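Contributing new complexes? Match this layout with MTE.
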Amino acid sequence: MNEPFPAWLRIHHYVNFLFITLLIRSGIQILMEHPRLYFNDHCTPGSEWLKFTRKSVPTDRLYTSHDDVIATPHWLGLPGGPHRWFGMALDWHFLSVIFWIGNGLIYVGLLFLTGQWHRLIPTSWSIFPDAVATLRDYLSFRMPPEAAFHPYDALQQLAYASTVFLVSPLTIVTGAAMSPALAARYPWYSRLFGGRQGARSIHFLCLVGYLVFLVVHVTMVVVTGFARNMNHIVFGTSDMDLLGIWAGLVAIGLILAVNIVATRVSLSRPRLVQNVTGVLVDGVTRPLLDRMTSRQCYTKDDISPYFWVNGRMPTAPEWIGLYENGFKDYRLEVSGLVEHPMQLSLDEIKAMGKQSQITKHNCIQGWSGVAEWGGLPLDKLLKHCRPLPNARYVVFRSFGEGFEGGLYYDTLDLTHAKHPQTLLAYEMNGHSLPLAHGAPLRLRIETKLGFKMVKWIKTIEFVEDFRHLGEGRGGYDEDKVNFGWYAEI
Ligand SMILES: Nc1nc2c(c(=O)[nH]1)N[C@H]1C(S)=C(S)[C@@H](COP(=O)(O)O)O[C@H]1N2
Ligand SMILES: [Mo]
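Output block (do not edit by hand):
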């Protein structure tokens, strides 16, 4: 009756715990980038169902989502720290999730191949009344005799089964629903969870579920025959000696050590971590997401009453002079590897064409918002300026600086530049682009995260490679905050 745990299951258990710790720590840091949770995709301040900040959003001055960030301590976040380290938290989250899912699939596969599923999956409805009875015992602090735990009691079986077969899949599918590429291509998918914010909130509730599970699980392991339980999960024996406890503590120590090293290496060698995680994460996500085109067509009723702003307003006298004159003297410079370099006024850009679309904006920090954007499809501009055969990327440079100093820029490949919903937007919700949202011209790329959409565009340049620009990562936030260039998750 007290069947030992097979070796694969014991190994899986600790590998799983390692990745869960990495996921929880990086996840908390990601959450703190926009410490508000909603069940609506407008993210209007005040409509949160839960917030982790005391700050309220002022209405008398510009308040950006960058101002809302809460820095996480290094022991809590992975790697922790202010916004500057946020990209690294995403790197760890996505890297860990690949291994966590891989480990989970092996586990579930072996569970069914070896018949071990009998431990977890209830086979009789009596599980529910039995679980209630067990719960009543616990609540009255009556410990059942130790033998009652082998095999699992009803409550334990329900807790394990629901964590493995309900909470974990739900965490995965809601995580995926936050991908801007997936949500742009299949808007119905994120609607299943009540939109991006519903998915984000459920993803958070799953985190709470894991934390509760962890606390109860560890407590029960300790109070219901610690020595035997530890021998059981570490060595697969039912011995009563202390060896299992010590070996288990060593395993937990190793997991702690990996966490410490991961934090330290991230802070001291960020580029190294960015390169290694980038290869793996892009390798898995790019084939899935990079070919997706946006199929969004929201209606006027979907437009958000409030739309968060991000980025630092340009302070360059050149831009200030332009806006004081209603952007009449604005000239967009189109240069680089093109047959026809151009200098375009706003009127000329408008005369080249206009497309309107109502789409959802997804900021990497977590918030979203729906707006109607009007502008020139970038593809049309390409037909006029005619990129040369060796042109592979388009560089968008802003009048404005980023939060770490230095001009904001980003790059896009020609395929995405030609996407049907890629726009040089000069209107938002039927009016000319508001100053804070990027006047006179901003980019809209509807399958990617917000940071790719350069605001206050000054120049467009076609290049063969972007490694000679900035710090060589293809964009300001890629250079400074370690964001991934593809920006599709
Ligand atoms: N020039 C410039 N463009 C920028 C940014 C910035 O800091 N500077 N922030 C980006 C980010 S992170 C987001 S989410 C969007 C926000 O657009 P919004 O302010 O119109 O909501 O702009 C993007 N474009
Ligand atoms: Mo963003």
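Reviewers usually confirm one structural detail per submission. For this one: The pocket of molybdenum atom (ligand 2) is lined by residues 310, 363-365, 450-451 (CB under 6 Å).
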